[in-house]
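Attaching the record inline, Q. Sequence:
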Amino acid sequence: MINGKLISTKDIIWKVYKDAGFVDEINWGDAIEWTIDALEFIYHPDNFEKKVTGHKSDPTYDITNYRAKIPCDLVHLVGVTVDGWPALPTTNTYHQLKDGGCCGVDEFASLLSNGTFVDNFGNTFITNLGTKYGGAPLTYELNNDWITLSVKEGKLCIAYLAHPTDCDGFPMVPDDVHFREAITKAIVRRLDYLKWRQNPNDRGLKALYDHSDQEYCWYIASAQNRAKMPDVDKMESIKNQMLRLKPSISEWSRNFTTLLSPESRRLK
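Structure, as predicted:
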């Protein structure tokens, strides 16, 4: 568990100068890219900024002809709702064709009857999620900066993760010693690699790069474990999710708003 505080990549680059003793000027653009790469290798939700966009008053995310633009800073999609109803990733092969009417493929909605779907083996699946759209579940698919949905019009709301940035546009990293060291080692490793690549026969540079690579691997794993380690509050949340007599199987339809609530069972 990390503390939620962030520092700028600028501070990390100065730390690289200090810790590694570099006297040559570091290309800051390269250092920023290496920082992003390292953060994505660590990859934990606490690394990123949690964002929600597309509120009802925001016309930018109005669905037009089944489509809407996804945010340009999206790193990982967390959830999608349409007019307040949650949507699922599509399983329809022809979802990008909107109605599926191509090459003799029937429209998906025609396969639905009273909120149920019967496959070729006679298995019946309940598809009615209680939305205003009837029996067919809301679905979406991401494709080349666009999100395609199963409804032609509506208000789209997207929850997602993005890289946090400072006032100058530099990415920010968790202000935690494990993360600070991991990002520093990632930049040093890249710089040492470039030096060795320019002189591949230099055994000293190869040994230096091998050492940097070993430190990088160790500190990246350290940051990953640090982010995954829950504190007391998160342990309580995990306990409330697991310690139940009756499984809570409809949390997704409520956007997981009550997932962490402890179960209350009255004995009569």
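Residues 49-162 form one domain. The longest helix spans residues 203-228.

More tomorrow.
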